[in-house]
Queue: 2 jobs
Job 1
Amino acid sequence: MSAVRRGAAGAVLLLLVGWGAVPLARAQAVAPPAALESNVLLEGEQRFRPQWSARGLVAAQEPLASAAGAAILRQGGNAVDGAVATAFALAVTLPQAGNLGGGGFLLLWLPGPSPARQRGCLVEASGGNPAAGPELAIGGGTAVAVNFRETAPAAATATMFLGPDGQVDRARATRSLLSTAVPGSVAGLALAQRCYGRLPLAQVMAPAIRLADQGFPVSRELSDSLAAAAPRLQADPVSRRLFLPPPVPGTRLRQGELAASLRRIAAEGERGFYTGPVADALVGAMERGGGLITHSDLRAYRAQLVRPLRREFRGHPVLTMPPPGGGLTLLQLLGILEPFDLAATGLNAAASLHPMAEAMNLAYRDRNALLGDPDQVPVPVERLLSPAHLDGLRRRIDPRRHTPAPALEAAAAREGTNTTHLSVADRQGGLAALTTTLNFPYGNGISVPGMGFLLNNEMDDFTALPGSANAFGLRQGTANAIAPGKRPLSSMAPTLVFRPDGRPWLATGSPGGSRIITTILQVLLNRMVHGLNLAGAVAAPRIHSQLWPERIDAEEGLSPDSRRLLEAMGHSVRRAPAMGAANSVEVLAEGGSLGTVDPRRAEGPAVAE
Ligand code: DON
């Protein structure tokens, strides 16, 4: 389904119910509180209502995985247990994005004193600024971010994707074993669960193991997605055997090898992945197929606990993922836009969209020129978020005219189209926002022999050649150049928003490559500024601009007169396919929580590869 269709109200509502926001007790799923009932999405006649639960819920892209997380909440797990259970289940039921062989980020908030120090975690994983420590106290609880982005292997070099002609070899950068960075997901999920979860890892992973062992009925979405990726999967004999021909919808997909890998992890924690038979098979495949990842790369991999980036927006603390995640750009956008009276100019009106698009161009200019892995390059985080810098950017916005990209003198990014985001609320108001990816759908299409899982092609998120566009138009700088052990820059930005008094409120995030950041921006503006309820805020049509290519991408639903007004200001506007999938949850002040699944397809447009 491309964006939200007019007149397809029933279908949209059905999808919201049927696509993965699983309340713990269906009997309790009643209409949201009266205060939210007046919020009507300005699209057709439909009212969008999030689901409600008194006992927590999981909003993820695939319903069996959401149900796995909800089952863990029901067994007494907290939001972290629920998120970890859902993420492992997505590795089974959503192989295009859920993964063992990829990476991602998690933002969490839990009430009360943190269990992490007592469990030895704050010594063990001290990423970010050790002086400040990774945890941030807010709302009578603790917020922390988990960085499980993949790292470049030790043998990686800045020029490894250049061919003899000095140009980027796209196939090598995206389809070969060289495109695989050291996977981070297993270390990240295990770290989060060990330091902040309440239940044993084996219990949290049990639903995923069951789904892999016993199989599950293949959805039309999965069947279509496998068919679309067939040419890439076909090239690898192991992937071909695991996934092709694409199962007919409704047939059962059993994944015995994946179940065995999951069992090892459940029994041994991350050691079951980074050492032993899984590691041997991964390294063996690398040695035979010309990849770089060694046993020592796997043993050296560490997920990090890091301090979330924080900035207030209209009195609401917003906590998000620092670099190499995309949260800094999100906070820049909120900072640039804060003084604009977007509520008065109106949702999806040209007078609102113009400053938003111009702010996006300016923030992406900074992103592409200056951001990289802060463990390896200096990233001027404070300067980029300073009032002086944000005021300076805002002053560059001409209220009447689009500023052409060459006048801003920089390059920007366009990225792939498959990743997945899940948000969890537990009954104590604990929140988790987790985004994970293999980069392309099914990563590089190559599976680890005998282990049942696919490998990422995250190395393509690095700058292969400074200033030169990659297959997605990505033109980044040397701050994001390839170097051993470095993490490639990402747009993923799981985000938590708090009430002005510090109590937890929203958890959100999205897939969508470079559109991730602008998707989250609009969900937040729709909820906080325009007052849409959570489901409406997620479903409302979105725009995206990133300096280069110089145009506004607009989903279906932008009114023709807004479009004409934008064009009159010098913007080029292109009707774009659906962007992002911002599965989100909200904690209600009066108790209970709401969840909504984005009524767009998880995958959006096919990756140009
Ligand atoms: O980390 C990143 O920014 C990209 N690897 C994400 C790719 C992506 O979101 C594709 N998805 N829809």
Job 2
Amino acid sequence: MKLSQKDVLGMKEMTHDDINLVLDTAESFKEISTRPIKKVPTLRGKTLINFFVEASTRTRTSFEIAGKRLSADTINISATTSSLIKGETLIDTAKTLESMRPDIIVLRHSAAGSPHLLAKLLSASIINAGDGAHEHPTQALLDMLTMKERKGRLEGLKVAIVGDISHSRVARSNIYGLIKMGASVALAGPATMMPRYVERLGVSIHINMEEAIADADVIMMLRIQMERQDESLFPSLREYSHCYGLNGKRIELASKDVIIMHPGPINRGVEIAPEVAYGPYSVILDQVSNGVAVRMALLYLLAGGGEA
Ligand code: CP
């Protein structure tokens, strides 16, 4: 079992069959994390480098845990502890790392397209752990695993994605992935946070949040990405929250067994009320758990699938 491509760069590139293969493999790997000894020898002798040039809690930790649970030698490098701060370029750093013969490099970087550049230059498999506002494919895969577990299918699901769509790599990856898997996607957010021409991807666009979440099976809330904005795109947080914040009253508009998702980190009381984030419809912590399984599956399929 192998993926059809050397790298995992985006959901735009990932095939329908590869998505199914990752989700099925992740499902079978979940059991390992429930054992008293959470470790299998599958990737013994393989080397994984987690190269995070942007901040991360969930993605970096879960890639490290995934590598270690599969017995890969797992090395973490961050911007502040690497020679990037001495002026070394990303390409020179990547070539230096490649000389140590890693099997997989996981890259998070603020520049869109940086994993694609490394994938062309290096023979190691590259996994995109988030490149600027472009894509975050492993987040979309764990989101899809969570939806499939809870709903039994992806095809025909009505998924509403609400918030800062234009700066969200999570939204973009989920749109590509979900449309490919037969779900319908409704986007809601201020017009200033809606990417131009996004309707060409096969989604519906709503300025009114209530319209988008009506009868939704899944509501995915997004954080406002202040770090990627150089101008104010809404009058105030209070006003934003009034128009696009998810609260108990708005949930009543969705399907009665709706699930509430958020990639994290959440801004409590802005896009989501705390009682909703940790309420009965929330699967936010399941998403985090599924992140480990999905990343184990990807490491296995890229580095060890043929030999297990
Ligand atoms: N969802 C996500 O990418 O979270 P982190 O930034 O904490 O990795």
